Amino acid sequence: MIVRLPLLSATTFAATLLTAATPAAPALPLLGPPTSSSARSEVVSPSVTARSITSAPASPRSVTARPITSGPATQGAPSPNSVATRVVASRAVPPGAVPLGAPGGSLYRTGRLRAASCPEPPLVSGGIPRPKEYLLAITKCLDKGWSAHFGRARLTYSRPKVLYVEEPMDRVCGVRWPGGAAAFYCTDRATLVFPLEGQWIDGRTDLYPLKVAAHEYGHHVQQQAGIRAAYEKLIRARRGDQAELGRRYELQADCLSGVFAGSVWRSLGGRSAQDWTALVDAVRASGDDPEGPRSHGSGASRVSWLKRGYAAVSPSACDTWSVPSSKIS
To answer: What distance in Å separates the CA atoms of residue 110 and residue 194, rounded to the nearest whole number?
Structure first.
């Protein structure tokens, strides 16, 4: 489910306080409870038919990609440094793209997110679920990584507030609780809201909870970089394109979650290529239902932008606004 500006859908909140959560998580059977750090590396099989992973979308505008070959992989995991690309943009704007200079120009010039240590705590310890402890640790890493990144670029940055909720409330951030949402970001109050139960986090051994947290934090990064304000102007100016603009906004948050994952991958503790594959499968399964609203993007598009951010470890790879419509389906 997505919570958007009232202009986007007649069924969403009559307020501009909430920005989309990740939709309710796909139900993924786990291969046993995570009883140790090694158990967290077990592969998760999605309860959907696997589809081929499409190649990453063409770089924003017209680009030339040059490979970077530094840094070994960890335990067979895909190495961001070994596959990252530097994006060299030209002035060409593909048909259907948002005009240049719309959202996020300054963010794309901030360079790579520096590698950081973020030891991942277990979601279950001693048979006891510990979702709050897990999210506290991941959010601390997100705060540290993004605030330092903005600081190095001499951009203003304030950390978000975080609300951990045991169960859904009648109201949150001044509006009615968004039913079916996994987690979400209150734009006007700069607040992340993390329910401590639900399919997105209960008993999981994969990296999906980390990805959801990083995606919602990505919305805060968008707000701090001025992307949210530019997005709202576009929504008002291009009422016929609201669904597509919303996907550009959401897929950018997917890409930013990949940037964060790439910056901390080596420090997660025991994660492997199998864990990356499991995450990709979960993200693909969380794509828009072909028969429902096209709010966050197809599974293939979500995977492509996640992988693009992970590979580049830089927001420069996340300009979803300057690519053709076919890249944000």
So the answer is: 28
